[in-house]
Amino acid sequence: MVERETWATRVGFLVAAIGSAVGLGNLWQFPFKTAANGGAAFVVFYLIAVTLIGFPALLAEFVVGRRTRRNVVGAFEDLGGPGWRVVGGVALFTGFWILSYYNVVGGWVLRYVLGSATGAYFDDPGAYLSAVASGPEAVAAQLLFLAMAVGIVAMGIENGIEKATKVMVPSIVVLMLALAAWALTLGGAADGLAYFLSPDVGSLVDNAWTVVPDAVGQAFFTLSLGMGIMVTYASYVGEDDSLPVDGGVIVVSNTLIGVLAGVVVFPILFAEGIDPATSGPTALFEAMAAAFASLPAGRLLGVVFFGVVALAALSSAISLLEVAVSYATDNTDASRPTLAVGAGVVLFLLGLPSALDTGEPGGFSAWFVWFDAIAYKLLLPLSVLLVVVFVGWVLGRDAVAELREGSPGSDGLATVWLWTLRLIVLGGIIVTLRLGIGSLFLAEDAAFFAPF
Q1: Which intervals of the chain form a coiled coil (predicted)?
Q2: Cα(288)–Cα(85) distance, integer angstroms
């Protein structure tokens, strides 16, 4: 088997993990999920979910990865026996499932970078989205985006992923800060910020049970949980690194960039009189494109904005692809480039329904929405649930011992973390999964049956 790689530096691991988290989940999903779930009310539930559920679950994945230094499937087998391979298998499948349609969105973003430079969408943003979202051109853009991710992963951990994300992540932060500073100067920016950051208590209470699944799912998605990414990345980490400190850096960085994305998007939408609540999943594309089409220097602003989104999307795509390649590398004698290309071919084929379905004019295809709904409402919470059960109730004291490595003086905190995982996190995920299954299979407009 091929010799297992490691991160060249601790900073390299942190930047790569932050890059995985800071992807389309923050720059695309977070604004439109916020708009679809009542604005600031959703932000409150999201922050609670990140703190009480996301952070402890992130540490659980770190513990499994570093303790075994194996791929996501082999890690659970080493710690719990062959029967627990299913936990890693679900995570591997979940990440692969998400990446299949994630690549399609990545292709759209590349098209919007070009469309911004040429002004192609300025006359009719809705028609441009319809042309970009599906059909042969969408397939070609999907293939280009996927080829970029495959190329980086094929170069390895140190020379590929680490070097690429060290450039991508700082670029994302700098450009987002510049965009936010500009967005706050627009007329209507105050209304946009109020919508995004001033919660209505009544809305919090009235919409709690419908907002919670999306808020928890968003926390999982933006922290790259339930997809095997953090287990895989932590398998390359040294014993002297403090997992709680590293996890805290990743969670805080991810959350701040997610909020920063909202500070960019909502002032622009309100300045142009676009209602975020009705723009839905098209907020990043049709709504933002319409805004850039009417703003001074709109072409330049569009290139910068969608360029940032493209970098973020690529940083997450390479982390999702690495999970599958890591598993194959540990279990075959094939070279990393060969395995990366092979995984890319399978992903391309799996993503074809999302790219080819013509869907509704100006919207997303039924198959795309179907893939996304299953990921958010079923696969992600189920995968995280299995990890939490395993780490909290099977690994138990060994998990606490691993968390303490590299973190002197954390004995009490490690014990608190374990019981938080066993009770609060476990309970929260069970409720979330139950609500998600209800909307997916049992509701009057059950999402699972929509394409059929």
Answers
A1: none
A2: 43
Q: Can you give the length of the chain in residues?
A: 452
302 versus 23: the higher-pLDDT residue is 302
In three-state form (DSSP H/G/I as H, E/B as E, the rest C), the secondary structure along the chain is: CCCCCCCCCHHHHHHHHHHHHCCHHHHHHHHHHHHHCCCHHHHHHHHHHHHHHHHHHHHHHHHHHHHHCCCHHHHHHHHHCHHHHHHHHHHHHHHHHHHHHHHHHHHHHHHHHHHHHHCCCCCCHHHHHHHHHCCHHHHHHHHHHHHHHHHHHHCCHHHHHHHHHHHHHHHHHHHHHHHHHHHCCCCCHHHHHHHHHCCCHHHHHHCHHHHHHHHHHHHHHHCCCCCCHHHHHHCCCCCCCCHHHHHHHHHHHHHHHHHHHHHHHHHHHHHCCCCHHHHHHHHHHHHHHHHHHHCCCHHHHHHHHHHHHHHHHHHHHHHHHHHHHHHHHHHCCCCHHHHHHHHHHHHHHHHHHHHHCCCCCCCCCHHHHHHHHHHHHHHHHHHHHHHHHHHHHHHCHHHHHHHHCCCCCCHHHHHHHHHHHHHHHHHHHHHHHHHHHHHHHHCCCCHHHCCC
Per-residue pLDDT tens for 147-187? 999 999 998 877 777 787 888 778 878 888 888 888 888 88
Q: How confident is the model at residue 90 (pLDDT cuts 50, 70, 90)?
A: very high
Q: How far, rounded to the nearest angstrom, does the alpha carbon of residue 430 sit from its chain's CA centroid?
A: 21
Structural domain boundaries of the chain? 10-449
Residue 350: exposure state from Cβ atoms within 10 A (0-12, 13-18, ≥19): middle
pLDDT score recorded for residue 422: 94
Closest CA to 187 of 271, 263, 262, 268: 271
Q: Which CATH number fits domain 10-449: 2.60.120, 1.10.3720, 2.60.40, 1.10.4160?
A: 1.10.4160
| pLDDT per position as a tens digit, 107-162 | 999 999 999 999 998 888 878 888 888 888 889 999 999 999 999 999 887 777 77
Q: Report CA-CA distances (Å) from 139 to 116, 207, 240, 356.
A: 20, 38, 45, 7
pLDDT given at position 142: 94
